[in-house]
Amino acid sequence: MDDRQFRNAMSMFATGISVITTTLDYDVHGMTANAFMSVSLNPKLVLVSIGERAKMHHYIQTTGRYAVSFLAEDQREISMTFAGQMEGQRSVEFDWFNGLPVIRDALAAISCDVVDAHKAGDHTLFIAEVSDVRLATGQPLLFYQGKYSRAHAFA
Fold first, then answer.
1. Angle at Cα 67 formed by Cα 7 and Cα 136, nearest 5°?
2. CATH fold of 15-144, please?
């Protein structure tokens, strides 16, 4: 199997879209990620997989903290901004949650403290303990087969 075939297979798994954020030297840093998951209920652990070449890799290693914002269906432009898919500068509004920047009006925000990191291929799995969560209402922004999508409820 070649890289393209593998990527095509992985695109068949629909995911929610999150923005991972942290702050370093008073600057906010963020990236769009769909390689995020819940790991454990007790203790409350989550994991994000970050490529070793991504700037966020260095920021999380340095700060030992990150926040996760789950994007709502009307936040596609925010996802594209943090994925580097938008031309020019875009202004993004943040709220502050437990000392970390989170995306305003996201469906949920999670503040985390890194407890472990594991190298996995060309990525690092940053496992973090959740310190707090904030919830809102709405529908999620999804990613499926390389495209943005919306959830459709079953009747």
1. 95
2. Pnp Oxidase; Chain A (2.30.110)
Kindly list the domain boundaries of the chain, sorted by start residue. Answer: 15-144
Judge contact between 29 and 70, C-beta under 8 A. Answer: no
pTM, entire model: 0.91
Cα 14–chain centre separation: 15
Q: The sheet that has 108-120: what strands, in order across it? A: 27-33, 18-24, 65-70, 108-120, 123-135, 45-51, 36-40
* Residue closest to 68 by CA, chosen among 42, 39, 40, 107: 107
pLDDT, tens digit only, all 155 positions of the chain: 899 899 889 888 888 999 999 999 989 999 999 899 999 999 999 999 999 999 999 999 999 999 999 999 999 999 999 998 877 777 889 999 999 999 999 999 999 999 999 999 999 999 999 999 999 999 999 998 888 888 876 66
Residue with tokens 């992985």: 10
Q: Is 92 helix (H, G, I), strand (E, B) or coil?
A: coil
